Structure formats: C-alpha cells, structure tokens
Amino acid sequence: MLIIKPICPFVRFSYRVPLNAGDRFGPRFCYVPSLYFIESGCAKVIYADGSNIWLQTGMLFFLQPGIMHIWEIDEAEPFAFRCVFFEWSYRPKSGVRFPNDFLSEHPEECNRNWLDEPHEMGLPEWLMVDSFSFWKGLFEAVTTEYIVLSHQDYPESLAINGHFQLLLHHVYRLVHRQTDYMDPRIAKLMASMEQQAGGSYGNVDSWAEKLGLSRSHFHTLFRVQTGFTPKRYWNRCRIKKAQNDLHRTNDSVTMIAERYGFSSIHVFTKVFHQMIGITPTDYRSQSRLL
C-alpha cells in the first residue's frame, strides 16, 4: 500500500517574468511544480509529444515537475507572467540556491535527487480567471523576487507561504465553480474515457459527431471544461490505469502497454515519463518500496 505524505505546500520562489515578442526558450523541465498567471500577451507551450497549449491574458497554467516543454511567445506583442515554484511537501535540495537551479535543459545531466514526484492534486492544466485584478494581487503577495526560500528562512517565510495557501484556496474554489457547470455531454464522455482507457485513441470526429458538435467546437468545449485536450485527457486515463497495474500486478511492462493500447513499449515509456516523471520500471520499483 502506498504511503501518502502529508501535504504542506512550501514556496521556493516566485517572480514576474517579462518576455519580448517572438522569444523562444527551452526545451526544459522544472524540478518542482509551478503555477503561472498570465499577465499580458499570448504564448504557446509545446510538450515533448508534440501537443501544445495556447496561453493568453487572464489564464492560470499548472505544470507538473519533470515535464519537458518549450515556450514560444507570440510575435505580435510582448508577454508577461507571474510564476510560483513550490513543493507540495518541503524536501531539502542540497546546492539549490538560485531560481535557475530549479530548471533543467538536459535530462541526461539532471540531478534526479532534486526532481519531485508528480502528484495528482486535482489541478487542471489551465483555468481562466474570473477577476484579473484579484488574481494579480494574489500572485503579487507571494512574490519573492529572486530569493529562493528554504526551511532555514522560518519564520520570515511564514507570510509568503500563508499568502500562497490562500492563493491555492482560491484556485481550488475556481476549479469547483467551473466543475459545477460541467456540460453533461463532456461529463458523460469523460466517464466513458475513464472506464474504457484502453485501445486506440479513437476518431475525434466520431466523438464530436456523437455529441452533435463540430470537431473544432468539440475540442474547444472539452478544453474549456477540463483544462486538457481530448487526447491528453485520454492519455492521463490510460496512464492512471497503468500505474495501478504496475503497483498491484506482476504483469510485464510490455503486457501493460499493450493492454492500454500503446503501439509499443517505447511509446508507453515515453508518455509515462512525460506525465509521471519516471519510467514505468522505476515507478514499479519505487511504489513497492513504500
């Protein structure tokens, strides 16, 4: 049985990042979870599997640790966001002193001791805020500029972390408000995806047709309601079931990959690593040690 560590969010650092139109940086990944508030402009975040998400003013964006990604800023105007790098539970990281220490551009050279395990905490990939000034104020209250915090900063860090807990409280309230208005068609489809979670992704046009929607409307509605593209949500469902099998059965990784419709063990391992941060084999080993 997996042991769940107590959740006590701790801010490592938070600052405002202004970028020029047309800028591009990455690929890279973060050692810890990060939460972003888009202040102005538009940008595209591109993942290693080729999927992407467009971010625009007034959006919240949540990124799990270990997810390789690239930022591409729209060429029409500058872009700015505020971000908070944090841990769900504080874990000492020897040698981490500056904000850039929390980023890695070379997976083969990264320090695995610094990489946090991704946790499914009920936060979607993105949300649209309901009051720009209110959310901007929440993020401003958490700003540490370029100072990285640790437990040694107690009690000076109390105010920052208190403001961050309030910020998370409002994030979850926003999630619940949007969930309360879930389109029944999307809710039914999500339940179906979670139950099946095997075989091929399926034909997006056929799913849209069953819901009585055009393909573009279906994609937009699904993303607005869930924070994910249909394919990314489908992959999440498959990986969750694969995690359970890796922990509770002795089935081979190849057998599990085939069971959930992955074309090869290579593809399965790649998607699993993108979402969980480690390989299926390492996940099985670690989960059975806990």
Describe this structure in words.
The chain is 39% helix and 20% strand. The protein is built from nine helices and ten strands. The strands form two sheets. It has a five-stranded antiparallel beta sheet, with helices on one face. Strands 5-4-7-2-9 form a five-stranded antiparallel beta sheet, with no helix packed on it. α3 packs parallel to α6 and α4 crosses α5. The radius of gyration is 19 Å and the shape is globular. It starts with 9 loop residues before the first strand and ends with a helix. The mean pLDDT is 86.
Any descriptors?
39% helix; 290 residues; 5-stranded antiparallel β-sheet; 9 helices; single chain; alpha+beta
Give a short synopsis of this structure.
With 290 residues, the protein is α+β, with helices and mostly antiparallel strands.
- Going by helix content, strand content and strand pairing, the class is alpha+beta
- The number of helices is 9
> Uncertain segments of ≥5 residues (pLDDT<50)?
none
The rounded Rg comes to 19 Å
* Distance between the amino and carboxyl termini: 7 Å
> What's the count of strands?
10
Report the sheet-strand fraction: 15-25%
The helical percent reads 25-40%
Tell me, rounded to a whole number, the average pLDDT.
Answer: 86
Strand ordering within the main sheet: 1-8-3-6-10
How does the major sheet shape up?
A: 5 strands, antiparallel
